[in-house]
Design goal:
By secondary structure, the chain is an alpha/beta fold. Helices cover 40% and strands 21% of the residues.
């Protein structure tokens, strides 16, 4: 049986509901992927409040320099898109907790 689960939190409704659903079933370890774009300033505050309310740890993974290393339009642009972004985020979550084998996402 899985006891430790990484949960990727975004500050949105889906990941918040998932966190509340799983909090009594597993030992959750939250991850927030930070890209340094304006909406995330509010999202990170929501995530910090959530992890405090449900008493789980939070790891923030700073991807801002990673994003800036590509020749992409500004991240605030509607044309922003990173190929395989979700796969990259899942791998980043596992890199924060290399001994775990389960990640929960609510995109």
């Amino acid at each position: 049986m899985v006891n430790d689960v990484i949960i990727q939190l975004t500050g949105g409704v889906d990941s918040t509901v998932l966190a509340y659903y799983l909090k009594d079933k597993y030992q959750l370890h939250a991850v927030f992927i930070y890209y340094d774009y304006p909406p995330q300033r509010k999202e990170i505050e929501i995530v910090k409040d959530l992890v405090k309310n449900i008493d789980i740890e939070l790891t923030v993974i700073d991807f801002s320099s990673y994003i800036k290393s590509f020749d992409l339009p500004p991240i605030s642009s509607i044309n922003y898109r990173l190929r395989y972004q979700y796969l990259i985020e899942i791998l980043a979550a596992f890199s924060a907790y290399p001994n775990f084998n389960t990640v929960a996402v609510g995109w």
